[in-house]
Amino acid sequence: MSSVKVAVRVRPFNSREKERKGKCIIQMNGATTVISNPKQPRDNPKSFNFDYSYWSHTSPKDENFASQKQVYNDLGVEMLQHAFDGYNVCIFAYGQTGAGKSYTMMGKHDSLEQGGIIPQMCQEMFTRISESTENNNLNDTEGNVTFSVEVSYMEIYCEQVRDLLNPKNNKNLRVREHPLLGPYVEDLSKLAVQSFSDINNLMDEGNKARTVAATNMNATSSRSHGVFNIVFTQKRQDFITNLETEKVSKISLVDLAGSERAESTGAKGKRLKEGANINKSLTTLGKVISALADQKAKSKKKRGEYIPYRDSVLTWLLKENLGGNSKTAMIAAISPADINYDESLSTLRYADRAKQIRCNAVVNEDPNARLIRELKEEVERLRQVLRAEGLASLINQQTLMNRNRSLNTSDKEKNALERIKESEKIIAELNETWEEKLRKTEYIRQQREHALMELGVSLREDGGTLGVFSPKRTPHVVNLNEDPLMSECLLYYIKDGLTRVGLSSAKVPQDIVLSGQHIKDEHCILQCKRISQSETIVSILPFEDAQTFVNGREVHEPTELRSGSRIILGKNHVFRFMNPDQARMERGQPDYISVESPSEPVDWSFAQRELLQKQGIDMKQEMERKLHEMELQYKREKEEADSLLEKQRLDVEELKRNMSNLVDMLQGVKLENESKQEEIREMKSKMEEMEKALSENADYGKSLLIWAWNKWSQYQFTSLRDDLWGNAIFLKEANAISVELKKQVLFQFVLLTDTLFSPLAPDLIPQDAVGKPRPYNKTIVAVQVCDYKNGATHYWSLNKLRQRLELMRKMYDQKSSSMSDLDYESAIYALLSQQDPFYDRTPWFSIVGRGFVYLSNLLLPVPLVHKMAVVSETGEVKGYLRVAVQPIIDHSTMSGSKGFIFNTLLYAHFVDEDFETSSLIDEDVDEGQQSIQTHLQIGSEFQFRITILDAIGISTTYADIFCQFNFLNRHEESFSTEPLKNTGKGAPLGFYHVQNVCVKVTQRFIDYISTQPLVFEVFGHFSNHPLHDDSKDMETLLKTRRLSPMNLAPLSKPVPALTMDSCGGVVASVPSRTQCAYDLMIWFEICELETRGEYTPVTVDHRGDISNNTGVFLLHQGIQRRIAVTIVHEHGPELVWRDVKEVVVGRIRNKLKPEESTNSTDNILSLSLLPGHYVYPPIDDRTFYRFESSWDSSLHNSPLLNRVTASGDKVFVTLTLYLELDNCATPVIISKDLCLVVCNRDAKLGTPRSLRNFFSGSYRSADSNRVTGVYELSLKYNEHQGVGSPGMRRRRRCVIDTSSTYVRGEENLAGWRPRGDSLIFEHQLQLNRFHKVLQVEKTRHILLLRETM
């Protein structure tokens, strides 16, 4: 037993209540609804407790506002779950007219957010059906479940039942009651649906067919009760028992017509009769509810107690839902105005009584099989009765039909026959298969389309309206237009009787409304007289002074129209009259010839010529005039074309002059390069003079000078840009030829620096670096050659690229020439016999990575086992290598151990070379310094052992692995291990290679082991090169071979300021010398106003990319907000914040990257600022500057911020800060992209709980409710244009960009572009990564040495 769930919902004021200045008398607190009597304000308000009380009186910005989604989540979700469990379900809405019942049940058809309970329940039903079907496909161990949905839609209008889904079934349907099925509607259409779109279309068709009318209280008042039934069937096939079980749930969704008073609605005539029938059915419903409530309140039902179900069709059909086998919910809609106090109080009492009803709902399992068996037994029992009465002959169907026609049939026989026919009809309906139901649905749809086609409306395959065509029986007129595509697009039907034609401003409403200067208010009347079933006469009756032409003649008297007549109204409206019956009759008379019927096609031109001829206008003179105008137009167009050609000629000459200017610019650049070289020579001479001047000083000055020279010489930004942009055209041409010849080779720029991790090949070392110590820390521009055919990667110098490009051009020219295939193959063979310019020799082994082991432990001496990282040339850790370094003090340890591979003793010699003098060992290791004197005597021999133990974590893409090592000063001598098979299974790769080294101790050797490492290189052979996987068409490669080295957040473009006077000088266009630089850490918070009146930060979801300091702000809809910004930096005298000039929010979008073309300032908003102030937290010597600004997101007028964000979507906005510093000419601009998700106002948001957050200590941390951004602030000197150092002036000059120059075959590159300035910044990050890895290895070595000692 379960009681009926009752909810009450109050709507906002309507226009009628606002005009009468109504006051709100409804209050809601939780589930309690309180109503006050406006006539007796001193009386205590009446309180009612329900399951739910929905406050929808205010706007959605109110935190207590109950939206359509909330109503559905509370009632619809629970009822839908009951339906899936197999229970019958019913939801009905009750209230006075205009209280919002239809809005709650149906909502707005064209809005997803304002959909009612019925569409939301149907949509979620099919969503859960699709999810269940997918789960069955993934896991079918529990049995296969199939679903079927059938719908019916009917209205109860004036106690008569009408089918809203079948246009042919326009008669009133009978309501019958079966002892097993209960009350049902005979011949009601049940249509099978397979998706939400099907059921939504049927729902829309039914709503359009429903009876509505306008009253004083509601402009679209429902004049009937709407009952939308869904029969939801679930069939499960049990694979274990091979039994099929079935659950059937009937979902009844009822939209009741509103109760009304005649004096309030102003109903008269037919509307008064409708209101009486509505009130009658609702009164009966109230009696039934009261009787059921009294019955449940009593301990035992009295004998003979009567419940008036049959007093109304509505209560008869809802018999099972009121106190029967159903889960029922009621929504009472009330008005908040004091003028509707009596109706609202009656509705609340009505709902309070319904709350006491209890229903006995059971799960409907396998109803069809049980019903079919019981119905067959009943049919057989009835046949037995007929046989016992001697009426066996009535069993035959034909005898039954004849018997029904007989007037002498007794009442007993009629009842028996009716019951047999009723049972057989139900059996036939229950035995219908799903395919038969789908065919029946399709047949009804075709009937609906056929009914529309009779009216001239054509439909698409999906049921939508496509257009109109001429009807087969109804007289009509179609428009004729000068544009043939616009002709016959408008069709006007001529009804029986009078059809008025005129303007919309006429006193009498016009049937055909036209517009124009020459159209009168009442222009004419089309009179249709039907003489017989197949003959109709239509006449036109023009009004006085109304220009009306029929077949070119102006008419002033009533004129009969023939099929095909041309009608011109005014000056612009041209029509053709069509009478299908008359045309059909004329075609049946072979000797009939119409004088008015033309021989040529009747269109707009024909009607105009006919009008001119009948009006006496000379067509020849008119044509000559038109021809003269066309000649004049031709002359004008010719003059315009000549002027355009002359303009193009002048443009070509201007282009030639620009080309000459470009040549002059190139000469100027060449002169600038020569001056640059001269400047470098002067700088070198000055440095030599400085070295001579400082030769007498201490080593500190010399080292400082060398450091400054090396630092200055490494600044290559300008020269690298020159090489990149100047050689881009050669790179693009090489790629174009490669695509044309289908070589599967891709060329791209790359920057290479001679470092310990990425030493340059001999052919890549610059000429000025020959003979200098390695590594040579200078960056060069090279070309990365990706050979997808052979699975190899090579690096070429720019000179080698130009040389190979010459050979590529020859190969391409021979291919494109008109020589025969044999000559071409011989020419290519002769060219390739030297070398294919696209390919280089592919080595068998490729470098995996390099690692370094420091030898400081030999000074102490102690043995150490190092686990060093193997780093590739791109800075990625490819694995780890374990190496043991052991000094040999006792020569008895020279004997080998089992399982180790010993090589012969190596004698190494260290010549005089310069190394770093800074030792890795701290000065406080006294015992180590003492031991150096004992085993590292100058001139003595010292032996140590290097053991390569094993390799860990090397990828299985390398099949054969071997390792080699060497000293930094002896690159030509390397010591390698034997290759090992890399299967990736079992223990790590064990080399166990032992190399004993014997050296003669010199000071240089002691300096080497104090500061320099051993270089270990790991090589491998690819089992399957990754480039082979990418070996596809070059178009795809050109689009996809652009990888970003780091996952960095994109730099936001500032949002333009709105209130500042000028932003032109915000960003200096001329680089200046930097005075100082600071790192700024900025915290961004969004605060919302809570109920206690305080602004607290909203929750931030940090489950995204933590490295980019990103997070998703979870906002509530319709709450006041503030944006709080805290700037944290080290204390500095130059960095003093004066004021916040402006805070701007803009670029609202649903993607992280904004569109290129969105430069509009429509949605940019300048925020109101609160004064900024410094914050002094305890135990922190950093500077904290904080300020806040008010943000009203509704002022953006953006639907992304005004609506709840859909699941899976995000909203991105750009926040730009304009701050003023002391002694700074321009403001500081800081931009940040913020990611938002707008949730419901009542949504409970919190930080997601996870074990990772729990153990990391960030769970429930206040720092998690903000997003951090790190910026670098550079304060520069204010230098004027043209003033500065020579290097500064050189960096200002224009760089020649050859990447946009066209080359032959460029269109085949699919938008590929050579790398530019971004490559320089990425390479700088890579060099910083190498430096950090090397520092980590040094630190690890020192810590390991400390632990050993």
UniProtKB/TrEMBL annotation:
Protein's cellular compartments: Cytoplasm, Cytoskeleton
- Entry-linked Pfam families: DUF3694, FHA, KIF1B, Kinesin, Kinesin_assoc
Any keyword Magnesium?
Answer: no
Q: Where is the Kinesin motor domain?
A: 3-357
Q: Name one GO biological process term.
A: vesicle-mediated transport
| GO terms under cellular component | axon cytoplasm; cytoplasm; kinesin complex; microtubule
Q: Does the keyword section mention ATP-binding? A: yes
Binding of ATP occurs at G95, Q96, T97, G98, A99, G100, K101, S102
- GO MF entry, a single one: microtubule binding
Q: Which UniProt keywords apply?
A: ATP-binding, Coiled coil, Cytoplasm, Cytoskeleton, Microtubule, Motor protein, Nucleotide-binding
Residue stretches in coiled coil: 368-433, 620-696
Similarity-based family? Belongs to the TRAFAC class myosin-kinesin ATPase superfamily. Kinesin family.
UniProt protein name? Kinesin-like protein unc-104
